[in-house]
Every structure is written in C-alpha cells, then in structure tokens.
C-alpha cells in the first residue's frame, strides 16, 4: 500500500505531516503550505483511496489509515514528526496519538470525529450511495456542510470531491463507521491542539469541546463564523494557531 505524497521545505527542518478530509486530496492544504514550509519540512499526502494513492477494495479501518501514515514515516526515514489533521485526518491523528506515541511529538486536530461509529448507519448509507451513484451524488451536500454560504471560493474543493475515487471514498466512510477513539483519549501524552468551528454541522462543536477535558493538557480553540473545512476558509486564523502550537 503506497501513499502519494509531496515534501516541501528544508530537508533539515522539523517534519510535520498534514492529513486531509474525507474526499479531499493533499491539495486542500494550499492555504497552509507556504506558511508552514518556511519553518518545517512539510509532508502532504493522500489517504488510501484518495488522490494519487492506491485504491484497494474496501472496507478500510482506522488502523489501516493510521498504519499507512506510520509506514510513510518509515519510507521517509523520519523517526519523529508532528501531525496536523482535519476531519478524517483528525480521526487518523487521534489514532496515531494513541497507537504510535513514539513517532509523533505533537498534534493539531481540526474538527476531529472521535466517535463516528455513533453514526454507523449514516456512514454505511453514504458508502452505498457513492458506490451506486458516484461522488457527484454527495458533492453539493458536502460543500453545504463544509462552508458557510458567504464563502464562495469552493471550485477547487468541488473538483476534488468529484474526482475522488468512488471506492476509496466509500471505503473510508466504512472506516469512520467502525471507529470509536473515545476510550483511549486519556492515554494520549503528546501536546494536542483541538480546533472546532462554531457552525460545523459535520462534526459539531459539542462533540469536539468535551475532548479537551478528556485529552490530558489539550488546548481548545473555537473558530467563530466558520464551518467544517475551516483550514481552507479561514487560513488567517488557522495558520497562526498552527505555527504557535507546532513551534
């Protein structure tokens, strides 16, 4: 299983990995890349089933997705890195914080679903819909959750969703539908920045805010007037938060 990835920044800088949202590729991090690459060796990647990565038949598990990231570190000969993840990438980050603590020194987790299995049937239904009708069937609804109406620069993200491999998207839905990361939150030892968006209907703030009390030492930020894909719509807020936490 090989992940498609790109490395930006100085070879001798600290490494940070960026894990994307369901249905998005590493290109979604364009608003962060230049800023982070000034201080870090930034590794962007596509989750399995996404972008230029392999698309094995599903279902996938969160262990599969997290294991892919650990293998990517091995491929890059990187002993330790920081990790930034949003949405699906945030869930992967929570798994890594619990299961590969020796490989990561800090995490920034943005709108992370800690217990998506709570909505297991919804994920199963969405996987079935995408396998039957393609990602175009869910694109408009997804964009409606990811951005507030006043944010209109969504063409690139729309195209990512449309181009997303149907099987990869569906299989990652099934991974989320079988994931509950709540039991291991109290065992996390790395510094964690949690970010939630005030108007996020995909991963509502009321599901993220309690995580700050369950992850030892976690720092919580609530972004006003923002929806789910807050990294893309509000980089002027997110980028300084990331730089402060990661440095």
UniProtKB/TrEMBL annotation:
<dbReference type="Pfam" id="PF00561">
    <property type="entry name" value="Abhydrolase_1"/>
</dbReference>
<protein>
    <submittedName>
        <fullName>Alpha/beta fold hydrolase</fullName>
    </submittedName>
</protein>
<dbReference type="GO" id="GO:0046464">
    <property type="term" value="P:acylglycerol catabolic process"/>
</dbReference>
<keyword id="KW-0378">Hydrolase</keyword>
<dbReference type="GO" id="GO:0016020">
    <property type="term" value="C:membrane"/>
</dbReference>
<feature type="domain" description="AB hydrolase-1">
    <location>
        <begin position="14"/>
        <end position="235"/>
    </location>
</feature>
<dbReference type="InterPro" id="IPR000073">
    <property type="entry name" value="AB_hydrolase_1"/>
</dbReference>
<dbReference type="GO" id="GO:0047372">
    <property type="term" value="F:monoacylglycerol lipase activity"/>
</dbReference>
<dbReference type="InterPro" id="IPR050266">
    <property type="entry name" value="AB_hydrolase_sf"/>
</dbReference>
<dbReference type="InterPro" id="IPR029058">
    <property type="entry name" value="AB_hydrolase_fold"/>
</dbReference>
């Amino acid at each position: 299983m090989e992940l498609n990835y790109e490395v930006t920044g100085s070879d001798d800088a600290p490494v940070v990995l960026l894990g994307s949202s369901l249905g998005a590729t590493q290109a979604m991090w364009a608003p962060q890349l230049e800023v982070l690459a000034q201080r870090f060796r930034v590794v962007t990647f596509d989750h399995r089933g996404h972008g230029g990565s392999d698309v094995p038949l599903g279902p996938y598990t969160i262990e599969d997705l997290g294991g892919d990231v650990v293998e990517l570190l091995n491929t890059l000969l990187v002993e330790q890195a920081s990790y930034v993840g949003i949405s699906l990438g945030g869930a992967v980050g929570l798994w890594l914080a619990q299961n590969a603590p020796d490989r990561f020194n800090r995490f920034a987790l943005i709108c992370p679903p800690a217990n998506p299995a709570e909505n297991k049937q919804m994920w199963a239904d969405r996987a079935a819909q995408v396998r039957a009708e393609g990602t175009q069937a869910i694109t408009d609804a997804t964009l409606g959750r990811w951005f507030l109406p006043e944010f209109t620069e969504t063409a690139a993200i729309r195209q990512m969703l449309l181009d997303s491999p149907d099987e990869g998207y569906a299989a990652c839905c099934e991974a989320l539908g079988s994931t509950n990361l709540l039991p291991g939150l109290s065992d996390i030892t790395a510094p964690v920045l949690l970010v939630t968006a005030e108007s996020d209907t995909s991963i509502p703030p009321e599901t993220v805010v309690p995580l700050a009390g369950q992850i030892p030492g976690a720092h919580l930020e609530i972004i006003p007037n923002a929806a789910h894909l807050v990294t893309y719509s509000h980089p002027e807020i997110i980028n300084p938060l990331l730089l402060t936490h990661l440095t």
